[in-house]
Every structure is written in C-alpha cells, then in structure tokens.
UniProtKB/TrEMBL annotation:
<dbReference type="GO" id="GO:0000290">
    <property type="term" value="P:deadenylation-dependent decapping of nuclear-transcribed mRNA"/>
</dbReference>
<feature type="active site" description="Nucleophile">
    <location>
        <position position="255"/>
    </location>
</feature>
<dbReference type="InterPro" id="IPR008594">
    <property type="entry name" value="DcpS/DCS2"/>
</dbReference>
<dbReference type="InterPro" id="IPR036265">
    <property type="entry name" value="HIT-like_sf"/>
</dbReference>
<dbReference type="Pfam" id="PF11969">
    <property type="entry name" value="DcpS_C"/>
</dbReference>
<dbReference type="Pfam" id="PF05652">
    <property type="entry name" value="DcpS"/>
</dbReference>
<dbReference type="GO" id="GO:0016787">
    <property type="term" value="F:hydrolase activity"/>
</dbReference>
<dbReference type="InterPro" id="IPR011145">
    <property type="entry name" value="Scavenger_mRNA_decap_enz_N"/>
</dbReference>
<comment type="similarity">
    <text>Belongs to the HIT family.</text>
</comment>
<dbReference type="GO" id="GO:0000340">
    <property type="term" value="F:RNA 7-methylguanosine cap binding"/>
</dbReference>
<dbReference type="GO" id="GO:0000932">
    <property type="term" value="C:P-body"/>
</dbReference>
<dbReference type="GO" id="GO:0005634">
    <property type="term" value="C:nucleus"/>
</dbReference>
<protein>
    <submittedName>
        <fullName>Scavenger mRNA decapping enzyme</fullName>
    </submittedName>
</protein>
Length: 329
C-alpha cells in the first residue's frame, strides 16, 4: 500500500511505534486477530491497536508461503484432516525463548472437489427448503453423501480410534454424546472458544431429524455441555456461552457448536446458517401434532454457495424449472 503522507510527517509518525511502552492489554477480539494496547510514549498515554494485515495474494508470495513457515506444531489429525500452529517470523521470540505462533493452519489432504467448492470465493443465494423439497430431493442427497464415506473422521472419534485425548466430556448410549475442541479454535484464546458436541447415535443426520420427543434429550445435552465447559474453563460463565447448529451443516451427522458469546459472528454464525439450540428446543416444544412432529415439517430458509452441490443440483434447477436428476447425487 502506497502512503499519501508527506515523507517528513510519515517518518515522524513511524518513529513513534518503537517508543511505545506497554501498560496493559485492553482487548483481544476478532478471534484473537486484533489487540488493543494501552501504553505510553514519552510518558504520555497512547493507544496502539494492532491487527493482522491482509495476506499478499501475489503468486510469488503464495508459492513460498508453506516453505516460509517455522515451528510447525500439529494439534491433531483425523482421516484427511489435520490442523497446526506455525510461526511466520523466524527472528522473533518471547522472553522465554519460544516463538509464539501467529498462524492457525488447517490441512485437508487429499481433498475433494467438494472441499474446493466450499472454500473457493463464490456468490451466495438465499433458498427456502420446504418439507416437500426436503423429502423429495435434499434427504436423498444427504443419504448419498453419507454413503460416500464422508463421515469416516466423525466415526473415528465416536468409536475411539482418534482424538480421544481431546474428548473433554462423554456420555455413552443411544442418547450419548461427546464434547471436544473445534478444529478452528487455537485452544487457548477464551474469547474465541469453540467446542463441538458430537452425538453418538447415527439416526439423526441434521436438525431436520429432530422431533418433539427429542426435547428432553436436547435439554439434557445442552445442560451437560454448558456444565462441562464452565468446569474446564473457570473464567467462562454459563451466560457467556452460545449453542447453535448449522443448516445446511458441513457434514450429515448431528452436532452442536458451543462458542463464547464474544466470538465474532462471521458467516458461520449468521442468519441463514446458524440456528440457536434454545430456539430449536422451543419450536419443538410448541408443536401440536404429537411426539412425531418435528423439524421435517417446517420450511427452512438458508444461504448456499453457488458452487455447492445443493445449489447446482437441486435449488438452481428448481429456480429455473429444470428437471432434477436424483440419481446424479
């Protein structure tokens, strides 16, 4: 970025930064990507707000990105997924001689075209999925995705083959569940705390499978997840936690997200993606058609990427009055 400041003023301003003396941290937000510091310069109070600069997208920079990383530390690995902390500055170290990580990395290898479509920049569309559309098209799509083995990493955890050291709380049985850190959390920044609750039972693929008779179970899980979280992290209080589920979810095995309320609400927590667990419970409680009434009976509105299979194979054809080939799922 080219500065428009006159050189003599720019030079004077730049000389102030090394003179900053820290008094205390005021805030760490945007999931730890921005800090606000109180300090002094020449004994006068000063505020310094620092945030991660945008990544350079030049091909030369991106080509050398992976080889420029230092102190790569694996946090976990399961099936095709792995996640790491790493450092980008080999010349900086803290007082204890350690180099603090400034990157959180996720690796998917080998990845599929579905992964590529998910992470590629794309336009979004708002769609309304009626009970009829769900039953006729979306449910068969879910079935096909599960048959492709996309849930191996989930079953590895549930069956005790991987990530058992990360399981923070567990109840076994048909209505059992387990709690573990989400792979996108660095496991230390409380303001961006993000945990995942995986159910053991395999008959509930998404919020669509929840029925009125599941209310007691959902309330039990909610209470236990909150209780376990505040016990593990004493600085976090019950009313600082937010629980939600995604629709459409990334994978079709029912799971609940538990996050700190101050975690920046990006697209994954936005309307059109996240449904509050308490609101789901309340909606189920007020259904009047008996215990079999459920979320399969309501219309859900959410957003889809234009590169997603559901948009390309279901909702775009519906919009354009084209035939949908369920066998192509």
């Amino acid at each position: 970025m080219t500065s428009t400041t006159p050189p003599e003023i720019a030079s004077k301003a730049e000389s102030l930064i090394p003179q900053f003396k820290l008094t205390r941290l005021l805030n760490s937000d945007q999931a730890g990507r921005r800090i606000s510091l109180l300090g002094t310069i020449d004994s006068k109070p000063a505020l310094l707000i620092a945030e991660r600069a945008a990544f350079s997208t030049s091909r030369a920079t991106l080509s050398s990105f992976s080889t420029s990383l230092r102190n790569i530390k694996n946090l976990g690995a399961n099936d095709i997924y792995a996640w790491f902390l790493a450092n980008s500055d080999p010349n900086f170290s803290s007082e204890d001689g350690e180099q603090p990580p400034d990157f959180k990395l996720n690796l998917i290898y080998p990845c599929t075209q579905k992964h590529v479509n998910k992470y590629e920049a794309q336009g979004l569309r708002i769609v309304t999925e009626t009970p009829a559309i769900y039953a006729k098209f979306v449910r068969p799509y879910m079935q096909r995705q599960r048959e492709k083995g996309a849930l191996n990493w989930v079953f590895n955890i549930i069956e005790g083959r991987t990530e058992q050291e990360d399981v923070m709380y567990r109840e076994h049985g048909d209505e059992g569940f387990l709690l573990l850190p989400d792979l996108n959390w660095d496991r230390k920044t409380m303001g961006s705390l993000h945990l995942l609750g995986l159910v053991e039972r395999r008959d509930i693929w998404s919020v669509r499978d929840l029925k009125k008779r599941n209310v007691e179970w959902l309330e039990h899980m909610r209470g236990k997840m909150i209780e376990a979280t505040v016990k593990l992290y004493p600085h976090v209080e019950r009313d600082q936690l937010k629980l939600y589920v995604h629709y459409q979810p990334t994978y079709y095995h029912f799971h609940i997200h538990i996050v700190h309320v101050s975690l920046e609400a990006g697209s994954t927590q936005a309307t059109g993606k996240a449904l509050g667990l308490e609101n789901i419970i309340s909606q189920l409680e007020t259904m009047s058609d008996g215990d079999d009434a459920g979320m399969q009976d309501v219309s859900l509105t959410f957003h889809l990427g234009e590169r997603s299979e559901l948009w390309e194979k279901v909702f775009a054809p519906l919009k354009e009055a084209r035939e949908i080939n369920v066998d192509a799922f």
